[in-house]
Fold:
Amino acid sequence: MKAVILVGGLGTRLRPLTCNTPKPMIPLINQPFIEAMLMRLREQGIDEVVLAVQYLADRFRAALGDGEQLGLKLHIVEEPEPRGTAGAVKNVEHLLDGTTFIFNGDVLTDLDLQGMLAFHREQGSKVTISLTPVEDPTQFGLVEMDGEQRVQRFLEKPRPEDITTNLINAGTYIIEPDVFRYVPPNQHYMFERGLFPVVLQTGDAMFGYPSRAYWTDIGKPQTYLEVHHDILVGKANYHIRGAEIAPRVWAQGDVDIHPSALISGPVVIGAGTKIERGARLIGPTVIGAHCSIGSEATIDAAVLWDGNTIGEGASLRSCVLGHNNQIGAKTVVDGGAIISDNCVIGPDNRFDRAIRIWPGTQLGEKAISF
Ligand code: GDD
Ligand code: MG
Structure:
């Protein structure tokens, strides 16, 4: 069974974390998100995947190659320019034959793909769209169905007054390839604002497949932190790599933890990381590989990627740090702040709101306090 994963977006809402790392390559529990997604697809019977890449395309090639290590056949195809979600699939149409799964590359879900495929076949559907309930459909594509689950209306990013259901497009489709004749070649064209409304007009069979499976779009800073939380507290089904060295404390290789450090799980610690005297790690927290957490520092409900050095007595709470930052002694980072990559933040700074610090920022001692 073949699939296409759409991974060409700019990841704008997750900037500056996506300045150097495309959204599907950002780590989830210290593993590139797309890698875990590919493993999940393989487990569910998909053995050949086309990755439709555009932004920072080389990062995918370097990390995934031809997919052999993951046990599937992978084609990484770069668009000459962003073609939009349906245009991206049109661009790889020559690699498809027969019923195909299409995935948005930023959704974590444990949807039953074989169940969805059986439904698609029973209905003789041309396009089947997985649906999930959400509280606020204005951020998504709203999908209305009739009593037989035929799609009646598709409304991308609806205005609050247009909301008639809480069911949204969950970003997994099964499509019969002949439907791609409606997609103009070599153009920017979207499923959401182009193909789906067209299929509604042509009358081809288009069904919705609602599910209560776990579902999150990881593409916003708040949901990125929440999804870590959900995995670590066991709400989302996800394989956490590493050895459980204490209840709900995972070490992903050699770690050096001072005996006086206090660790309250769920906490994941990457390989080669050092936790110094009196440091406190409070879950749900993930610390990447080759980090150093200084003495008496506190890391609470935070996600740190690889290579971060945290100074003595610093306090990091509800925040995300990208790669290779240095945080000075007694600096406080809190309130949803994002520090991207290669920043040097001096001692005694204080960020306690959802500020975004761009790659390579250098700040001296006591330069910021808010
Ligand atoms: N190759 C390629 N080319 N991929 C693209 C392009 C493009 O031009 N534009 C977007 N993508 C990829 C993104 O990388 C992402 O994986 C996926 O398409 C969806 O794009 P997002 O930018 O994340 O869309 P969204 O989250 O605002 O909305 C979409 O997903 C919602 C569910 O999470 C829509 O499909 C909504 O209808 C849906 O509810
Ligand atoms: Mg998205």
About this structure: The chain has six helices and 34 strands.
